[in-house]
Write a structure and sequence with these properties.
7-stranded mixed β-sheet; binds ribulose-5-phosphate; 223 residues; 14 strands; Rossmann fold; Alpha-Beta Plaits; alpha/beta; 4-stranded antiparallel β-sheet; single chain
């Protein structure tokens, strides 16, 4: 039987080896990112961090890492984050933890963005994974009606608000044949403030499967 948590730890440890003194590091959100935060704290480097969620900021601070306010930061050296699903092109779905908007901002600000994951996250196609959409509460009904064009069914997360105070709807049954078109269509709907499709942000991935870590680099992977 696969030990997913051990694989998350291995992927995180491999990615954290890319961190050097004097870097500003973006910290992701979720159980795999938590392994990276712990591994980073253990390395005891002279670094600063920014966090993609309040939970990750709290964890990092509790482990002795210095966390800066991202509102005062315009570029990051390296971001390390998990994913819900990732394909060979390094296109990914993120946001099961609800932090996809801040994660995308930090990933975009980073010179290099690395996804870390256990082998269950590596997929041939992304469309089987629920796609989270972050929505301004004011626009909930309007956006939900518009989203019917893209999803077979949708589930609003009950009693849930993101760190930005917004709601999240998970879209199921979506067409993954033209991901850039879908991403463009979603951001064009007023009231949608973010979604979990990451198409151009990810530079590399460390994926651990049954104790073996594979590194994928954008543009260098066999299909
Ligand atoms: C949070 C995310 C997470 O990175 C993603 O959900 C993976 O989480 P985990 O490592 O717990 O499986 O995108 O918004």
């Amino acid at each position: 039987m696969k030990d997913r948590d051990a694989d998350k730890h291995l992927a995180a440890a491999a990615a954290v080896r890319e961190v050097c003194d004097d870097m500003l590091v973006g910290l992701g959100t979720g159980s795999t990112a938590a392994h990276a935060i712990a591994a980073l704290a253990e390395r005891n480097l002279r670094i600063e961090t920014v966090a993609t969620s309040l939970a990750s900021a709290r964890l990092a601070e509790s482990l002795g890492l210095r966390v800066r306010d991202f509102a005062e930061v315009s570029r990051v050296d390296l971001a390390i984050d998990g994913a819900d699903a990732i394909d060979a092109r390094l296109y990914a779905v993120k946001g099961a933890g609800g932090a996809m908007l801040r994660e995308k901002v930090v990933a975009d600000a980073a010179d290099r963005m690395i996804v870390i994951a256990d082998g269950s996250k590596r997929v041939a196609r992304l469309g089987g994974t629920p796609l989270p959409v972050e929505i301004l509460p004011f626009a909930k009904s309007y956006v939900t009606a518009r989203l019917k064009d893209f999803f077979v069914h949708m589930v609003e997360r009950p009693d849930y608000r993101t760190d930005n105070g917004n709601i999240v709807i998970d879209g199921h049954g979506w067409d993954d044949s033209s991901l850039p078109t879908l991403a463009d269509s979603l951001v064009a709907i007023p009231g949608i403030v973010g979604h979990g499709l990451f198409l151009r942000e990810i530079d590399a991935a460390y994926i651990a499967d049954n104790g073996i870590v594979t590194r994928l680099e954008r543009g260098a992977n066999p299909r």
